[in-house]
Amino acid sequence: MHVNSPDIKLSDNDQLVVWKYLDLSKFLDMLLSQKLFMSRSDKFEDQYEGTFSEPTFEEIKKIAANNPKFLDYYKSHREKVVVSSWHANEYESFAMWQIFTKNNEGLAIQSTIGRLKKALIVEKHFEQYIGEVNYIDYKKEYIPFEDTFFPFLFKRKSFQYEREIRIISDVSHSQMSINEGLKIDVIINELIEKIYIHPKSENWYKNLVVQMVKKLGYEIAIEKSDLESDILI
């Protein structure tokens, strides 16, 4: 396992706080399976995911003129790269609650870069990397393509608010067939430092999460988000 690579940008600060916002069913699936879901890169809503900026594409087209398979490789490669997305932020994010949870339910996993590194269990058939996403102008800026991971570590500037950290793997050499994505083994107690319950959720919902986590044998701190705490006047 390579949790980071000299070519992939990642903060040296293992205490950097990262978050994953998700609904209760996905969270429960994670606890029961002790696995982290990684989505296939071409299944994200952003259609630019894993593609190239215009300057890079112009260069690739020149190479592909004499080697058509070169471009085909990059198109099909998106189906073999899987990603788990995390949000880097010292504090919880109101915007992330809005985007990734619904109906005043859902929760946020708080972790750190260091915890992500320790939580990943070595996979036999592919390597794992952790990297920061770079936000660029796709019309003007160049994305290097010497490394096959690079297209998956760049996004358009309009997504800058995501401040995304990615766990990323390429399963091309594993002969694995993946549909929506795949699940990787993780150490749950390392992965999760704390759980925050949706700020607009009711008390019964928090109690449900507390009981569920306890019955599954995990000792994880659980708090209600303080974004909706009482106004002091």
Quick take:
This protein is an alpha+beta fold and 233 residues long.
Features:
233 residues; alpha+beta; nine-stranded mixed sheet; two-stranded parallel ribbon; 11 strands
Report what the structure shows.
- Helix 2 crosses helix 3 (68-77).
- It is built from seven helices and eleven strands.
- The chain has 233 residues and is an alpha+beta fold.
- It has helices at 24-33, 54-66, 68-77, 94-100, 113-119, 188-191, 203-215, and strands spanning 17-22, 35-40, 81-88, 107-112, 128-132, 134-136, 154-156, 164-170, 181-185, 194-197, 221-224.
Parts with pLDDT < 50 across at least 5 consecutive residues: none
Radius of gyration: 19 Å
Oligomer: single chain
Global structural class: alpha+beta
Secondary structure tally: strands: 11
Indicate the proportion of strand residues.
15-25%
Number of individual domains: 1
The count of helical stretches stands at: 7
Order of helix and strand elements from N to C terminus: EHEHHEHEHEEEEEHEHE
Distance between the termini: 52 Å
Report the average pLDDT across residues. 86
As a percent range, the share of helical residues equals 25-40%
Shape: globular
The main sheet comes to:
9 strands, mixed
Give me the secondary-structure topology.
Blueprint: E1 17-22, H1 24-33, E2 35-40, H2 54-66, H3 68-77, E3 81-88, H4 94-100, E4 107-112, H5 113-119, E5 128-132, E6 134-136, E7 154-156, E8 164-170, E9 181-185, H6 188-191, E10 194-197, H7 203-215, E11 221-224
Parallel strand pairs: 6-7, 10-11
Antiparallel strand pairs: 1-3, 1-4, 2-3, 2-9, 3-8, 4-10, 5-8
Helix pairs in contact: 2-3
